[in-house]
Amino acid sequence: MDRKIKGQNRAIELLEHALTENKVASAYLFYGPDGVGKFATALSFAQALNCVASKAKRPCGVCISCKKIANFTHPDLMHVFPFPMPDGSKGDISVQGEIRSEKLLKEFEEYIENKRTTPWKDYFFSKNSGIRIASIRMLEHRITLSPNEAKRKVYIIENAETMTNQAANAFLKTLEEPPDDTVIILTSSKPNSLLPTILSRCQKIPFQAISPKVIEEELLEKRFISPVQAKLFAKIAGGSMAKAFRLADEENTDTRNTSLELLQMIYNKNDLKFMEFSAKIGNKQHQALLNDMISQLIIWLSDINYLTYYPEGVVNQDRIELLESFYQLNPKIIDRTPELIEFLELMINKLAGHVNPQLILINVYNKFLETLHQL
Ligand SMILES: [Zn+2]
After folding, report:
1. What SS3 state is found at 187?
2. What number of H helices and E strands is found in the chain?
3. Domains parsed from the chain with CATH numbers
4. Where would I find the beta strands (DSSP E) of 196-307?
5. Cα–ligand 1 centroid distance for 116 (angstroms)
6. What's the confidence (pLDDT) of residue 1?
7. Which protein residues have a CB closer than 5 Å to ligand 1 (ion)?
8. What's the pLDDT score for residue 284?
9. Three-state secondary structure call for residue 155
10. 250 three-state secondary structure
11. Roughly how many angstroms between the first and final C-alpha of the chain, as a whole number?
């Protein structure tokens, strides 16, 4: 299996054992936090199952089968993922998988392209999404056909907990009698939201939060950043390699620009603009964006601290002026940084729960106003 996947030795060992002992299950559940390599491991496992290289070398990564799987073009690999819900216009996806809406098709292609080339980034659909009955019907249809060119057909169902009730019940039937030549892999960060009847039919492979040390090493190897920054990003990433990569890549991304926009509103005490802003992005659909944005605020605070005693450590080098203005507003912000960071970390945790995201955003805004403008 692919040793490029860092920090998941246990999961990889379990799968390698299944491969070498010829004890591959017909259904797996890869569960664990977001951004720790569940999907990457599923792809690697799909490759190993179909690779033509000698057993010890699978997946080789270079044979035609491995390449097609890496490119998402293998006819026997099916990838099911949360997709925008239908809005009344029934039949926007046919059983054969034909997407009949141009807009949906474009988003579908963008999602796959993102997954293929920059999987650590989040892709935002234009609407709320979930795993739809149409996708499960398509899977049912495909599963009855024999493999085109593979030894085993592999179905990866990403974020399986987002299945609608209807989809989950239909899927259960497939799971009860899977054909011999298929392997179904569910991935989920919320396995408890899956039907118990689905859970009990899958072999469970646990994935863990990745240690800051491993993330730090990976960042230094893969990104052109300073050791100070690598340590900072690894600490804020909360065990998610994907998030660490996003933080390291965030110069000129939407997330960073949105965070700067928010900081500008805080600086100007622009309540009116903030209310519009929070109404627009303070929802579950933007949860990942909000999570990264709050992390950007942590980086911002750490920058204000670095400004005076170690300017080279500043991440937002192109915003020195704004950083200085923040410091000027209330130099005591330095003393309050630990408390503020603790508060922001708490907000990130709350975001994962059932709290209204807009409320969290408002709390963050108020906390910064209170601290900076000494309200
Ligand atoms: Zn291969």
Report:
1. strand
2. 16, 7
3. 9-206 (3.40.50.300), 250-372 (1.20.272)
4. 203-206
5. 17
6. 78
7. 51, 53, 59-60, 63, 66
8. 84
9. strand
10. coil
11. 56
